Amino acid sequence: MSKTFDTEDLEDLYETAPCAYVSISPDGKVVKANRTLADWLGVAGGDALVGKSLHDILGFGGKIAFETHLAPLLRMQGHVHEIALDLLTPDGEKLPTIANAAEKRSADGRHLFTRLTLFKAVDRRTFERSLIEARVKAEAESKAHREAALLREQFIAVLGHDIRNPLGALAAGVRLLERKEQFSETGKSILMEMTGSINRASALVEDLLDLARGSLGGGFPVNRDSDAPLTPVLEQVVGELRRIAPERAIEARMTIEEPVFCDRGRIGQLASNVLANAITHGAAARPIVFKAFTRGDRFVLSVSNAGAPIPEDVRRRLFQPFFRGASRARRNGLGLGLYIASEVAKAHDGSIDVTSTDEETRFTFTMPKSGP
Amino acid sequence: MRTSEDCALRRHNVNVRGSGKRTIMFAHGFGCDQTMWQPVAQDFEKDFRVVLFDYLGHGQSDLSAYSAERYARLDGYAEDVVVIGNALGLKDGVFVGHSVSAMIGALASLKAPEMFSNLVMVGPSPRYIDDDGYRGGFSREQIEELLQFLAENHLGWSAAMAPAIVGNPERPELGARLENSFCRTDPDIARDFARATFMSDNRSDLPAVKVRTLVLQCSNDIIAPIEVGEYVHAAIRRSEYRLLAATGHCPNLSAPDEVTAAIREFV
């Protein structure tokens, strides 16, 4: 038994298709329209629309956009697709549609008319508008956050800057007392502790100022040159930390082919921060190995220590500002040391990485040895 | 070596074609880019040095140089016209501006009086919004509706695609192939330009315009109605007025021959 199909009626397909058809003359008048469009617009049949201007059935935004964007595009590329167009019903309501349009041209390229196919898109448009609203809201919120963050950083910068002066006065006062006055042993040890506290507070303020300069200035300030050797600077850093933590063994190996094109103060700061980090977090009974060397056109600085490995999720956040690991060690830092180290690295076109296994944790900084 | 002139020309995707003693610069209006002028401009290549460019944020201009602040007013665009003119050493040239560019050209002629000796304003309007005793054809609510349309129709623009279009000046065909590329604009920039255009009021600048001017008015243009064209003609002392048979807002595309003939007759 063979199956038979009803024949499609093309005339009826045009008239009652589940989308609207309208053809427009080059000067914007309706030449032909189907019944679907007539039904949407509440008029009796497509013929009732013939002779009307396209402008009469478009919302205002669509009208302007048609003249400024769609008509030129149609002339230049012959078609436009997926345009959100609002139709205007006779009672003034807007009917959201999605439109495709194409120019019908004669064999010699003359513009005969423009064909538009429109699909109702009420729900879709509601959805799209809610997406747009959500984006606008998200943008406003993120702008507010950025402004708040900027204000916070400016506050930190001003605060840090203004605290430096009273701290400096305190330090000078304590120095003066030590030199000029007679103290008992108790008095001397109190003065020494005061000096230590002032130094620590000054270091915290310097870190904060570095942070503020880095994020407010759009980059970390460095002054690179090749005018002096780097090795003595690093030797001094290692010496300082040995004095601060005399109970810890620090093995230092330096084979640097000078000069290194860098900001020596900053590289010293990087070395100091990474080394201090190893002293704080490394296994106390095992030595810390500090290496600084050049290889080819790279300068490499690495610090390794033994101890419990750093978990993966902590490792990822180590270089973020104000990050402090859940270590039991003393907590008198701001969590800026490694952040500043990584900013110094970036400012030298270099990078700092960390590897951590059961055997050792190692921070490695590398940068190009000579200037750009 | 890249001089600041080269940079300006590159930034605005300036194309110089043809040759002749005189220079004619075509400026696109709100909506698309320099391609809009192609059908008219090509006729002038045989006896003019023809200059085409894209305003910043449009066509294949350098998006990264865009500044919402600078382009909040038409003055920012007019300054760019002067920058391009200076980079080309332009003097006594012809400026042909479509739509909002007609006013931009008038403003540029005030900033650099020597640069242009002829100004052709195609569908000009010094103010789009109605005011006491003035009919511009638009209400504020209607402008909002237009801005909403622009927010909902990105015409294929996507941030991911923009670098491919903009970053390949040596492969223009890459841009040309992409759908809607002539009228594709970053939605934020399109919104800024729409605001700068439709919120503008440059009526008080018109009497100061000293260059010889031709006002080309379309017959049925909902963006720049006939009385607005007549207003511009009445306000600029040395102006001629011509009503085109062409309808719509873009006669440079719909009736390039008529526009070409009118400009030729004037210059």
In short:
The complex is a heterodimer of chains A (372) and B (267). Chain A is α+β, with helices and mostly antiparallel strands and 372 residues long.
Describe the protein in words:
Helices cover 47% and strands 21% of the residues of chain A. In chain A, the strands form two sheets. In chain A, strands 2-1-5-4-3 form a five-stranded antiparallel β-sheet. Chain A has a five-stranded mixed β-sheet with strand order 6-7-8-10-9, with helices on one face. Chain A starts with 9 loop residues before the first helix and ends with a strand. Helices cover 38% and strands 14% of the residues of chain B. About 7% of the residues of chain B have low confidence. A seven-stranded mixed β-sheet of chain B has the order 1-3-2-4-5-6-7, with helices on both faces. With 267 residues, chain B is an alpha/beta fold. Classes of the chains: A alpha+beta (372), B alpha/beta (267).
Features:
heterodimer; A: 372 residues; alpha+beta; Beta-Lactamase; Helix Hairpins; Heat Shock Protein 90; five-stranded antiparallel β-sheet; five-stranded mixed β-sheet; 10 strands; 47% helix; B: 267 residues; alpha/beta; Rossmann fold; globular
